[in-house]
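Re: the 386-residue chain
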Amino acid sequence: MSFFIGKDREARRSYGFDEVAIVPGAVTANPEEVDISTRIGPVTLEIPFLASAMDGVVDVKFAIAMGKLGGLAVLNLDGIQSRYENPGEILSRIASASPEEATGLVQDVYKEPFKDKLIAQRVKEIKKGGVVCAVSCIPANAEKFGKIAQEAGADVFVVQSTVSTARHVSTKYKSLDFKKFCSEMKIPVIIGNVVSYGACLELMETGPAGILVGVGPGAACTSRGVLGIGVPQVTATVDCAAARDFFHKRTGRYVSIITDGGMTSGGDICKAFASGADAVMVGSAFARTSEAPGRGYHWGMATPHANLPRGTRIKVGVTGSLEEILYGPAKLDDGTQNLVGAIRTCMGTIGATNIKEFQTAELIIAPDIKHEGKIFQKAQRIGMCK
């Protein structure tokens, strides 16, 4: 539904996670018996979680730990892992910087050139851990990095930028031909990020196995403030899922929708699936794990931009192990731990036995749902009102 926001100017109403709620079903199911596995092309994941390709979230050790727990961590090939032999020293410097120094320091350390041997080395280190290896880079580096990563044994390649489109106009440089790139790669390709039906549908035509949905919702991202762009994640996911279903009906090829960013709790993640997601990509929740390389800090992928940073370093703290965040037992009361348990329990309450059924859950517009009757939590700043 559109509304007039001024004379002859319409704007469509959109919704974020805090504005909707999932309606319990007429049939319930045993949470222990629901199937939460998902597929991205030929890759099957036991749990529908991807860890964001951010330097404060994923390194080799984290990727192996995530893989062993059933998910998929994406290593950022544009980051410090591909620039420094000993990234731990750089991570310590970023974590110890003051808020005023952080952005400038990140910009400075990311000036170090990429090293081809480190790209191959990181992939081989992850594969040595016996898990699926996924790596990411921006479109400008995709052709070069894709070949190196694929030859080193990578299983999934992600091409990610603030906004990705199948059509890119430039007279200054040659843009990446997504269709050519996807056809030449022998491993599944995920493309992101996108938030609209039309753009998503055009990207699906180029041949990816998955699409990342979300512009600016990440905890460390500032694109919405710097550029004024973005669509709230519920509406963005619903629109892109509709593109997926139309594309699948027309071509017979299924392209997974991966909601990327904006989820701070198990409830948000459940709403992403109810909106149509096949999987979710999460950053800040995993940055809070003891296995994350950021030492309790997290920064956006565009934070290092030399001219116009669109991210910042934030302190998220360390609240538990990766296993506790994913599987519990939860020690916190705010829904940020045991995320797998939250999905299973939610699916049970709506009677969904798998992700596809979860995607058909009834949603209602309910902007006050998180605060209704929560006066004591709000006054004491606990639980849902921290």
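The chain has a mean pLDDT of 94.
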